Amino acid sequence: MALIISKCNRQTRRSLRFPKPLRVVDSTTVTVGKNRLPWAPYHGERAGVKLHVAYSPESSLPADVVETIGLRHDGPVGEQLTNAQQVLVEDRAYFKIERLDRFVEQHQLFVIRMKDNIELHQKKSLKRLSSTSSSVQADFTCQLGTKQCRSTKRHRVVIFRDANGRDIRVVTNLFHASAETIADMYQQRWTVEVFFPLGEAISECPDLVWHDGKCGIQPTVCGVHRVCVAAMAV
């Protein structure tokens, strides 16, 4: 079976490795001179818009893009990018305890990095096969937060060590996947970083037209720019 899977293309291999397709959610800020976007002030002499992207590692393409001014926080916009048919993979900017409890009730699968200061209450280790080659440091369930603000649900927490030797804590409601698979899912988050430079490069295009006050992007007759913007699903 391993040999058969190895012969498949990248999209097929990833879909077989994970229980559901992944939906990596992240954002990038595109800045230009303030005179170009007077309705989107950012910092100092710069104006900016933010692209909130739902990215598919399986297809290596964005599935959805929401545009806002550059100073808009990620968390609220992330609510527009959920999809119950996919596993949400998100960074700490989208972490919120009540949001995780709600995802459990809504059957929205997720793998989200925890903030470093989150308290772990009543930890209970999960049984797993030990492996010297595994990057996983711990796998347990617990409630999250302090007494004043604590999750009503018990969530699974996986702690693993990344390539730089840092311990990464992620929380998930996936209980039928191995801790190594959970760690692998979160590390797919970095695939969206390959896409972000495209949006930044497009911002420097002199033929690009920005919708005044609507934070939209519209390509001109330039074929290359049309393809790039279409790829962002804007």
UniProtKB/TrEMBL annotation:
Task: Name the lineage.
Answer: Bacteria, Bacillati, Bacillota, Bacilli, Bacillales
Q: Which UniProt keywords apply?
A: DNA recombination, DNA-binding, Transposition
Which organism does this sequence originate in?
Geobacillus thermoleovorans CCB_US3_UF5
What family classification does the UniProt entry report for this protein?
A: Belongs to the transposase 11 family.
**Where would I find the Transposase IS4-like domain in this sequence?**
19-196
Q: What is this protein called?
A: Transposase for insertion sequence element IS5377
Q: Which domain of life is it from?
A: Bacteria
- InterPro entries per UniProt: RNaseH-like_sf (IPR012337), Transpos_IS4 (IPR047952), Transposase_11 (IPR002559)
One Pfam family named in its UniProt record: DDE_Tnp_1
